[in-house]
Specification:
The chain contains four helices and two strands. The longest helix has 24 residues. The chain has a two-stranded antiparallel ribbon. It folds into two domains: 46 residues, no CATH class; 41 residues. This is Branched-subunit amino acid transport protein AzlD. It comes from Pseudosporangium ferrugineum. InterPro entries: Brnchd-chn_aa_trnsp_AzlD.
Length: 102
């Protein structure tokens, strides 16, 4: 079942990418839509990151995970090395969980 799912997803992904190449010259998008498409992709990525940060399954993930992500985001914004960002975020979440926060 797992292999079949992987194959179906791979074929679907390949088909979507191929359709973009094949339909590029046939499909005319308005200037407004061409300006909105990059923002839509950014919005979708931000929503996915926010959901992964705040939710664990169908429930709230607790305060430790968002705090760790916030520390990591702050360090990334300050252009800290990637290893420092990841370690500081993980350490923040681990220490808060050790202190009893969910």
């Amino acid at each position: 079942m797992l292999i079949a799912s992987i194959v179906v997803l791979a074929v679907g992904t390949y088909t979507m990418r191929l359709s973009g190449v094949l339909l590029r010259d046939r499909l005319e998008l308005s200037d407004r839509l061409q300006r909105l498409l990059p923002m839509a992709a950014t919005t979708l990525l931000a929503a996915l990151a926010l959901t992964a940060t705040l939710m664990e399954g169908a429930a709230f993930a607790g305060l430790a995970r968002p705090a760790g992500v916030a520390v990591g985001a702050l360090l990334a914004w300050r252009r800290a090395p990637f290893v420092v960002v990841v370690l500081a975020a993980a350490l923040t979440a681990a220490l808060l969980r050790l202190a009893g926060l969910p």
